[in-house]
Amino acid sequence: MRKVKRAQILLAADAGHSDEAIAATVAVGTATVHRTRRRFVEGNLDEALGERPRLGTSRKLSGREEALLVATACSEPPEGRARWTLDLLAGALVRLTGHDDVSRETVRRRLAENDLKPL
Known about the structure:
mainly alpha; 2 domains; elongated; Helix-turn-helix domain-containing protein; Homeodomain-like_sf
């Protein structure tokens, strides 16, 4: 969707519309219009339409560790528990892997990516 909006911005700019008019028509901010035009002028069409790498930390869990998380979430919960919780799964991952800590949010995101909820 972002690529389409950027293309619309460039087409409207080519037609001579102002940044404010483009922003209102395409439903983006004027900063987005300015940034897209600048990327086109300083670079090329691919750079103006494309995504730049986003900053952030690398994934904490490897593919093998994510598979272990999924397998654990799909297994029977610990004795005395009716179901797995995010905190229980995070604790199990710490015990099963070399991580010092795994947050419940990391567990939640990885399960959500696989359309899973703890049993």
